[in-house]
Amino acid sequence: MADDVTAQQGSKVSRRSLLAAAGAVTGGTVLARMPRAARAAGRSFDAEADVIVVGGGGAAFAAAIGAAQSGTRVLVLEKAPAIGGTTARSGGAYWIPDNHLMRAKGVKDPKDDAVKLMARLAFPSVYDPEAPYAGLDRFSHGALSAYFDLAPQVVERIERAGVLRSQIAALRPGQIATGGVDWTHPEYHAELPENKAPYGRTLHPVDAEGGGGGSLMSGLATFARKQGVRVLTGQHVVQIATNEKGEVVGVQAQTPQGERLYRARKAVVFGSGGFTQDRSKVMNYLRGPIFGGCAVPTNTGDFIDMASQLGARLGNMRNAFLVQHVLEQALANSSVVDDLWIPPGDSMIMVNRFGDRVASEKTPYHEHTQSHFVWDTTRSEYPNLVQFMVYDSGVANDPYQAYGMPYPRPGTRAPYVIEGATIPELARNVERRLDKLRGRVSINGAIGPDVRLSDGFADNVQRTIDRFNGFAREGHDADFGRGSTPIQVSWGGPRRRGNDKNPSMYPISGSGPYYCILIGGGTLDTNGGPVVDASGRVLHVSGRPIPGLYGAGNCVASLAGQAYWSAGGTLGPAITNGFTAGENAIGEPVKEV
User: Fold this and answer.
1) Of 184, 38, 54, which Cα lies nearest the Cα of 582?
2) What does the pLDDT look like over 66-94, one tens digit per residue?
3) What secondary structure does DSSP assign to 162-227, as a single string?
4) pTM of the full predicted structure?
5) 292 touches 339 (CB < 8 A)
6) Tell me, what is an example of a GO biological process annotation in this record (predicted)?
7) Domains detected in the chain
8) How far is CA 184 from the centre of its chain?
9) Which of 30, 35, 446, 538 has a C-alpha 20 to 30 A away from that of 413?
């Protein structure tokens, strides 16, 4: 429910007056005249707050909590009918290096190594551990270093304040392993030499009802409201209001009741999510084709449009936090609720349209999704655009193997599962399904004429199965190292009876039935947008901060670059940088209108 906000006395601003073009000046730099940048000089507003926060997810409410100190008046404006955003759909984990719970258990997380780990994964093309700033530019390296310092402080502070309590992910009550951490929950890149603390950085909120993103959002929103934060839903912020000096003084929103103009005396903080659900942005910015995303339908990258009008520098636009989806679910609704993390099932492979494996099926979701983006320079196509998840009845009928997405529970059916008594019959049925889907488009991926099985698909799948079965019997995947890293073993599924070599692999049956699920690439959300500094201030193309404008979360350029460090790699920076931005926003001077 939206809270009431008291309106100031005075007439409402007309749309014509809001659209008056204004030449803005920031730090002596003249910004271009942008006809959609709202100029609000000399006008009255519908409501006023010291700090306005745009968005209703984890980053936005962390910013609201950071700002709601010492009597600061904070107003949250959420585009959707309810708060929560994509955070509410998530697992609710947040990745916090060197956190207080790790330290309490004696687990050390050396800063130099942790920053190098983040740098290696975020910017692998320039990473050099022996070079100054590990091969990165000074700004990017500084952002990673600042995150290492700020993240544990923020989480400890919000815990002491009573916002929420954290626990190390997968810590078993009553069981203490080495360092007090459950060693069955490793980091996604635990095997890298830079990772000196591969267990314990991922935290979850403590919640008797099971935690998750809903629990995290409930804790943040409940505390924010107790601090006096006002929340309005159904508020589609479309423009940023500035004064004649180019300082941000408010925002304009479209609401069910009409146009509204809100005054921010000190600053506006955006935590409005990425642009996964805006097809034009996805097509023009992302480095690979995707079919859908976990992001809620309102995540259309509005902040990119508004900040660009003020001359903001953009960064990391080609990247996203990636995940695979069941293709037919993404084609039906680009805002996909269910994601394919690390798929369970030991007698299962994924192949491309030629029937070839292209990666370890147990690779973490962000890494595996990038295999969809491989470009074939000879055929001028994406051969892995759609991948085909093939498995046998040993997986389909075993509740310990088919225990999660995308498998239906044993004894039940799902419309996206294709069956065949033999591999050739399965291939024919898969081709028929592709024919039915032909011409379907979702976000940035389409079932076009190139998305069809090769002429020798069935024969090649059988050869691929025979090769995989040999690896399974030996316990070693010579092609892609399936089951060779801690996370692949931990998340790859339970060990089948009689399999004492590699629990992630088991020979696929020599007789049917066989099953196939079509898999497409997608996102948790994008993570490119206006560039912010360590304080959360949005930077102009000149490098100077735009006065009164802050951002955090997936709506800004992520300091993670192309990486997904581990579970919670999205919400860790979102909460940390959101809280930091909100806290710094209250130190801004009051802007004149």
Assistant:
1) 54
2) 999 878 999 999 999 999 999 999 999 99
3) TS--EEETTPPTT---GGGS-TTS--TTTTSTT-S--SS-EEEE--TT--SHHHHHHHHHHHHHHT
4) 0.91
5) no
6) steroid metabolic process
7) 30-88+217-319+527-585 (3.50.50.60), 94-205 (no CATH), 323-524 (3.90.700.10)
8) 24
9) 446
